[in-house]
Amino acid sequence: MPLSTFSKILEMAEGGAQIIVYKNMPFDVPGLANLDVYNKAMKGMLTQLTWTSAGNDIKKATVGKGSILMGDNLDHLLAFAKTRREPMVESGLQFTRRNYGTGNYYFVANKGVKKIDGWITLSGNTASVIQFNPMTKTSGVARIQRSPAEGTQVYLQLEPGESCILQTSATAIKGNLYAYYKPTGKAVEIKGEWTISFTDGGPELPETVKQTTLSSWTDLDGQAVKRFSGTAKYSISFAKPGDATQAWQLDLGKVYETAEVYLNGTKLTTLLGPDFKAIIPTTLLKANNTLEVNVSNLMANRISDMDKHKIPYRIFYNTNFPARFRDNRGEDGLFSAAKWDPKPSGLVGPVKLVAMEKE
Known about the structure:
Elements: H1 3-14, E1 18-22, H2 35-46, E2 51-53, E3 59-63, E4 66-71, H3 74-80, E5 93-99, E6 104-110, E7 116-122, E8 128-133, E9 138-141, E10 144-147, E11 151-158, E12 163-169, E13 181-189, E14 194-202, E15 209-211, H4 224-227, E16 229-239, E17 247-251, E18 254-256, E19 258-263, E20 266-271, E21 277-281, E22 288-296, H5 300-308, E23 346-349, E24 352-358
Helix pairs in contact: 1-2
């Protein structure tokens, strides 16, 4: 453990915090620089700790107003510290929880590769849960169910990479219900002529092009598109599908790397991936519609072009950039992207509308 980290742990404990150290984490000073000095400082800090047994293979050291708990059984450590365990992590969700007096705020993110579509257990009991989608600015009272054994469960639908905010309340809250959707099986591909205009980035803006079959913009003619890093706007007009449905899910297919979606001049959402999907209520569709998708790629192609032309961009004092792989080693022995092929960029699709209905 770095000396600064251990020092911070002691400072927090002295202030009254209860610190959990899982898996009997060793208190070691990393590295060899100034080893004797740092080891002496670490030993001085360790003298502040007197470990006693707290049962269930838990060691406890009192530090100031707080304490440090150490053990290799997380359930025992959490129970001893009277810390509420959140079962949602077993579903692959990550969260941050904050208390606000009459309930909790949760920031929940699906970092897994599978869609979450089902009941998720929250620690403790609550009367209501409000769900917010920060990317689409939609919100509503979430669907919940309660049981004496499992506490409160909230129904969540989160695509891989998607996140939401939950607000729990000890009192019942009335309001619009949060909308949940499921596909009906019908899908319509948006076909026609796409206009691709490069709006921001460098080293220069490529010319506007039209495309009926979407592909990486690095596959277009010319060198400008192959070295360009920035944003391009994809525009297309399409007719409202004739099928009667409550909503449509816009599925952009493959996108490299992020997308801002506009429908008829109004922004719908920002999509960060890995899935690029958004719900469009049928009421937002006109007889004829304009879809605009602003797609930004990574800096890889621009960096590669600068290394090929020996344009300096690594302007740092006393810092080297060693190459991890031999193929990325330049003439000076340091990192170089000059040998890189252009990385896929832009909207690749296929772009589809999938019919959805409320559950």
